[in-house]
Design brief:
The protein has 432 residues and is mainly α. The protein is built from 21 helices and no strands. Helix 5 packs across helix 11. The longest helix has 27 residues.
Length: 432
C-alpha cells in the first residue's frame, strides 16, 4: 500500500487558520446577525474543510484528501456515528409510539413545578455519574426535556441545556468516564485521589447551579394539563436508564432500547411492524446532518494536527512557564486549546497528558491536581464548542442550533470559573 502519511510538521498561526475560518463564518456571523441559521453549520464546515485541504503543504492533493479522509473515518468518529444512528432510530420510534409523552407526564406528576428544573439537573448529574458518559445521558434525557418544554411552555434550548450541563458533571467526575481514565493514566495517579481533588472544585459549582435552578423554578407557573401516565409506554426509557446505569455499552443500551420500543409500540398499538421501521428510518435520516458535520469536523481537525497546529500551541504555551501557578495555568490552557482543535475531550487529554505530567514534575505540581485540571478544563471547553459530540447530539435531538443551547449552559461556565479560581487562589491547599 502506498504510504500517504509521511509526517511533515509546519509551524505558525496559519496552521490553526481552518478553525478560525469556521469560527468566523459560523459563530461570529451568527452572533452579529443574531440568527443561528443564517449560515448552516454544514456549509461552514465545508468551507473550512476545503480551506484546510488547500493550505496543507508538503503532500499532493490526493494525499491531502487521503489524510482528511483518515481523520473523518477514525474509529472514534465511526463509533460516534453508530451512536448517532441508533440514537436517532430510538428517539424517533419512542416518540411515535408515545414513550416521550408518557415519560413527560410521569415526570410532571412526580416533580412539583418549582422543583422541575432542579429535578432534571439532579437526574442528569446522577445518571452521567453512574454511566460515565455525557453522550449516553443526553440521549436518554434530552427528548424528555424537549417534551417537558413543549408541555410547560419553557424554552426548548433552556431545558436541553439543563440536561447537557448535568451530563458534563458526571463526565468529569465518574470513575468509569473516559476522561477520568485518560487523566489519571497520563498523570499516573489513583482515580480516587483525582476524584477527591476534582470534587472539591466542581461540587460547589454544581451546588450553586442547583440553587439557581431552584430559584428559577419559583417563577415557573404553567397551566399545562398533565395527561394520564401510560406506564407501559414508559418502559423503553426505564430500560435505557437502567441498562446505562448498570454500565452497559452505550451501543448495546440503544439496541436493547430500540427493540423494547418496537415490542411495546406494537403491544400498545402505537404503531405496527412496518410503522416501527418507518419511524426508525425517519430518525436515522434526521441524523444525516449531524453525521456530515462530525465527519467534516474530524477531517479538518486531522489536517490541523498534521500541519503542526497542536504542536505549535504546545510549544508556545510551555516556553515561558514560571512557578506552580503558571504551570497549572499552562496545563489548563494546553488541554483547552487541544480540545478546541480536536472536539473530543478524551483525545485532548491523551494528546497533552504526557506534556502536562512533565510540566507538573518540573514545577512541583501535585499530579492529582494536574489530573483534575486536565479533566475539568477539557469538559469545560467541550461544553462550549458547537461542533462537539454532546452539543451536536443534543441539538439534533431537539432540532435546534447548538449555539442556542450554549447560552444556557450554566454548569460548564460555572465549572470553568471555579477551576480557574482554584488555580489562582491555590485551592485545594492540600494539593497545591
Amino acid at each position: 500500500m502506498k504510504e500517504y502519511f509521511n509526517e511533515k510538521k509546519s509551524s505558525g498561526l496559519w496552521t490553526l487558520s481552518p478553525l478560525l475560518v469556521f469560527l468566523c463564518l459560523y459563530l461570529v456571523t451568527s452572533l452579529i446577525l443574531n440568527d443561528f441559521y443564517t449560515v448552516p453549520i454544514t456549509v461552514a464546515f465545508l468551507v473550512s474543510s476545503v480551506y484546510a485541504v488547500s493550505i496543507t503543504k508538503g503532500i499532493n492533493l490526493n494525499e491531502r484528501i487521503a489524510r482528511f479522509s483518515q481523520g473523518a473515518a477514525h474509529k472514534n468518529i465511526l463509533l460516534m456515528i453508530w451512536i448517532f444512528i441508533l440514537a436517532g432510530a430510538f428517539a424517533s420510534s419512542a416518540k411515535d409510539m408515545g414513550a416521550i409523552d408518557a415519560t413527560v407526564n410521569l415526570t410532571l406528576s412526580i416533580l412539583p413545578e418549582r422543583l422541575l428544573l432542579a429535578g432534571i439537573f439532579i437526574a442528569s448529574c446522577f445518571i452521567s455519574l453512574a454511566v460515565g458518559t455525557s453522550v449516553g445521558t443526553i440521549v436518554a434525557l434530552a427528548p424528555v426535556a424537549v417534551g417537558i418544554a413543549e408541555k410547560t411552555g419553557l424554552e426548548e434550548a433552556f431545558m436541553v441545556a439543563i440536561v447537557v450541563g448535568g451530563a458534563f458533571f458526571g463526565d468529569n467526575l465518574s470513575f468509569i468516564s473516559d476522561t477520568t481514565i485518560a487523566a489519571t493514566r497520563t498523570q499516573e495517579c489513583k482515580m480516587q485521589d483525582k476524584f477527591k481533588v476534582n470534587s472539591m472544585i466542581v461540587v460547589p459549582a454544581a451546588f450553586l447551579v442547583l440553587l439557581l435552578y431552584v430559584f428559577q423554578g419559583f417563577s415557573i407557573d404553567t397551566s399545562a394539563e398533565i395527561g394520564r401516565v401510560e406506564w407501559l409506554k414508559v418502559i423503553p426509557y426505564l430500560v435505557v436508564l437502567v441498562t446505562a446505569v448498570a454500565g452497559m455499552n452505550v451501543l448495546l443500551v440503544l439496541i436493547i432500547g430500540l427493540l423494547v420500543t418496537g415490542i411495546v409500540g406494537m403491544i400498545t398499538e402505537g404503531f405496527g411492524f412496518f410503522g416501527w421501521f418507518e419511524a426508525m428510518g425517519t430518525g436515522i435520516t434526521g441524523m444525516g446532518e449531524l453525521i456530515i458535520i462530525t465527519m467534516l469536523a474530524a477531517g479538518m481537525l486531522e489536517l490541523i494536527r498534521f500541519n503542526g497546529g497542536i504542536d505549535y500551541i504546545i510549544n508556545g504555551l510551555t516556553r515561558r512557564v514560571k512557578g506552580k501557578r503558571g504551570a497549572e495555568l499552562s496545563i489548563a490552557a494546553l488541554v483547552s486549546i487541544a480540545n478546541l482543535c480536536t472536539a473530543n475531550n478524551t483525545i485532548a487529554i491523551i494528546t497533552v497528558g504526557p506534556i502536562a505530567k512533565d510540566i507538573a514534575e518540573k514545577f512541583g505540581v501535585d499530579l492529582r491536581k494536574s489530573a483534575s485540571i486536565l479533566d475539568t478544563f477539557s469538559c469545560f471547553v467541550q461544553g462550549l464548542i458547537p461542533y462537539g459530540a454532546q452539543l451536536l447530539m443534543a441539538a439534533g435531538l431537539a432540532a435546534i442550533s447548538p449555539l442556542e443551547i450554549i447560552r444556557y449552559l450554566y454548569y460548564p461556565f460555572m465549572m470553568g470559573a471555579f477551576a480557574l479560581l482554584a488555580i489562582v487562589i491555590r485551592y485545594p491547599k492540600r494539593y497545591s
